[in-house]
Amino acid sequence: MSGITRRQAIGAAASAAAGLAAVGAARASAMGAEPHDQAHAGAEPDSFDEVYLGRRIQGAPSHDGGHHAGHGGGHGAGYSVRIDGDELHIMRNADGTWISVINHYEPRATPRALARAAVVELQGATLVPLPPPAV
Amino acid sequence: MTVRKNQSQLTADEKRRFVNALLALKRDGRYDAFVSTHNDFIMSDTDNGDRVGHRSPSFLPWHRRFLIQFEEALQSVDPSVALPYWDWTTDRTPAASLWAPDFLGGTGRSRDSQVTDGAFASSGNGWRINVRVDGRDFLRRSLGAGVRQLPTKAEVDSVLAMSTYDMPPWNSASDGFRNHLEGWRGVNLHNRVHVWVGGHMATGASPNDPVFWLHHAYVDRLWTQWQSRHPNSPYLPTSNTRDVVDLNDTMRPWGNVTPADMLDHTRYYTYDTAA
Asked: Residues 53-92, chain A: which have Cβ within 8 Å of B?
C-alpha cells in the first residue's frame, strides 16, 4: 500500500469540499437505517466497487479471513473492505452487522454501508496501515 | 484514599490538576501506551474468538483494571488526582461545563471536527494524536452529531433492573446486564455515548479523547450500583467457557488479575456518593 496518488489526493480534497454538505445528510441516512433491516446473519454480502464522496470504496469476500488471518477466527469474517486501496479494519458482529475501527461503536447493516460511514468520518483523510496483530 | 467525584462538582483547582496530569502523561509517552492497548483489544476481541476487553463478560472488570492502572499513572504525577466521572444522564448537552475551555474543551469545528479550545486543542501543541486510525494528528469531536440524545436516567434504570450479569453466548448477542450496559443490545448505553461524542471517541482509538476516562468511570460506577441492587447476582460465567474470561481466569494483558479480583472496587477507590 503505497502513498495515495496525486489523483486520489485531488479527489479527496475535492470531496472534502464538495462532500461536506453531503456529510450531514449521509450521517442522517446512516443513523436512520435500522441495522437489522438488511442484515442476515450468515448471509454472504456481495462485492462492491464504487466512488462515494470522491473516495473509491471496494468490498469483496476474502478467503484468507481478512488482515489478521487465522487470528480469533478471522476478524473480517472472510470479507475485506478498502478505501482508496487501503484496507479498513472491519469485524462482523454475531447478529450479522458490521463495525470498523473508524466506526467501532455503531454497527452498520452491510460492508458497503460501513465503508460509506468511514468515508464520511474520514473527511478526506487517509487510513493508516493496519498494525500487526498485537496479542 | 482515592475518591472519584462527579466531574460537575470539581473545583477549578481539581480540574487544573487533572488536566495537568493528563498532559504530563502525554509528554512522557505513557498516555499513548494506554491508547495503543485499548485499540489492540478493540481489534482482536471478536464475537466468535478470544475476547477480553469488549463484547464479553470481562468488559467491566477489564475496564476497571484499565482505569485503575491509568489512575495510578495520573497519581504518580500528582497524588491528589482521581478520575472524575461524567454522568451523561444529567450533563447531556455540549453546553455542560465538562466541555468548557478550562476542562476538556468543546466540540470540533464543522470543517474537520478539530477541537479548537482548551488544553487538548492541537493549537496548544500539547495533545498530538500519535496512535491514529487515519492521517489526522489533531483531536476530533462532533458532539451530538452521530446520535442526537445521550441515554436517559430511565434507560439507565431499565438496564440496572436486569438481574442476570451475563448470558450465553457471552458476546455482543447476549441478553443480560453486561451487554445492555455495553450497548450492543437494547437501549444502548455505553456504545451510544461513544457515538454521541464522535470523532476519536467513535473509533477503536477512543482513549485519545480524555473524556474516555470520565465516561468509563461512570460506566464503572453503574456496575457498582448494579451490584448493590442485585447482591445475589454473581459475575458469570464461572468456569470452562471457551474464548471467554471466567470468574477466576486471568485477563490479558496483565496476566495476574481476574474478574474475581475486580469485584470489590473499594480497596482501590470509592465514589463520592453511595451506590
From this structure: 68, 71-73, 75, 89, 91-92
User: What gap in Å lies between CA B173 and CA B67, rounded to an integer?
Assistant: 26
Going from N- to C-terminal start, the domains of chain A cover 31-122
Per CATH, the number for A31-122 is 3.30.1880.10
Q: How far is residue A58 from each of residues A41, B31, B52, B173, measured CA to CA in Å?
A: 21, 35, 31, 28
pLDDT digits (tens, 9 = 90+) for A3-46: 334 334 333 444 443 334 344 444 444 443 434 434 444 567 88
Cell matching residue B145: 452529531
> How confident is the model at residue A129, as a pLDDT?
79
- Residue A16, all three cell numbers: 472534502
How far is CA B216 from each of CA B108, B189, B192, B237, rounded to the nearest angstrom? Answer: 21, 11, 13, 22
Give, as one character, the DSSP assignment of residue B45: -
* Interface predicted TM-score (ipTM): 0.93
Q: What is the total residue count of chain A?
A: 135
Which one of A104, A120, A126, A127 makes the best mutation probe of the B interface by having the most chain B beta carbons within 10 Å? A104
